[in-house]
Amino acid sequence: MSEDKAKTLQFIRDYKNHQVLWDSRHKDYNNKKKRIVALTDLGIKYNMNLRFIKNKIKSLRSYFSKEYQKVARKTEGERYRSSWFAYKHLLFLLNASPKKLRIDEQVENSDESCDDDGESQEKTAVAACSAKKYSGGKAFN
């Protein structure tokens, strides 16, 4: 494993240990001061400023979300398996924010369930149809 990948995996472990940064159910998740303290801890450890730490977290979460959507997408034949080295290490994020990831997945999978007037049998598909209808056919992000 390259040194960069090893550092990224260590960063992910440290990020996971700062639950206040990623778990919306954490009691201090909405406490800005405690979140800044946690970000500062990461910044000191990795000798990075807060902006870079936030960008690193955003990048990892975004790529993980895209990979998760590929894995979760139901297709005929074999399912997609992520080959991204950090994918398995970020699975803990599903425990904290399954709502957003599941909503994204439901919108992706609801294409077949939308008919011309936007009616649907499932509530999630109704929401997805409405979102597509009012956003010019694209789901809200």
From TrEMBL:
All residue ranges annotated as the MADF domain in the record: 10-98
SMART domains: MADF
Organism ancestry: Eukaryota, Metazoa, Ecdysozoa, Arthropoda, Hexapoda
Protein name per its UniProtKB record: MADF domain-containing protein
Organism: Parnassius mnemosyne
Domain of life, per lineage: Eukaryota
